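Dear colleague,

Thank you for sharing your sequence with our group. We've completed the structure prediction you requested, and as agreed, I am returning the results in plain text so they can be pasted directly into your records. Please verify that the sequence below matches your submission; if there's any discrepancy, let me know and we will rerun it promptly.
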Amino acid sequence: MLLAEFVELAEMAGARIWLKMDGERATHRWTVIISSAQADFRHRRDVNRLDHVLKIVRDELAKLPGDWSWLHEPIDDLNEVAEFYEERGRAGEIVIIDRPELLL
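Please find the predicted structure tokens below.
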């Protein structure tokens, strides 16, 4: 599965995932916000790497009601997505991803 598909499946299940990559910070450059209006849930964390973001998202979504049977499928493009956005971060860009189609 691609990261965009993962984010889209989460959205279809009622959870919104928002990612930010901030190249200006030396540490904790990835921010993730997970929310679900249905479950009155919101979680925010800053971490160093995109794979840490994915673990947080998986852990937090698994706590919410719903069918998360797909949650632990491998993400085939995680390294490529991380490299792409971290390269932009090193150039001083701040990247915000709030819809799955922005990852395509």
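Summary note from our side: The helical segments are 3-12, 50-62, 78-90.

Kind regards,
the structure core
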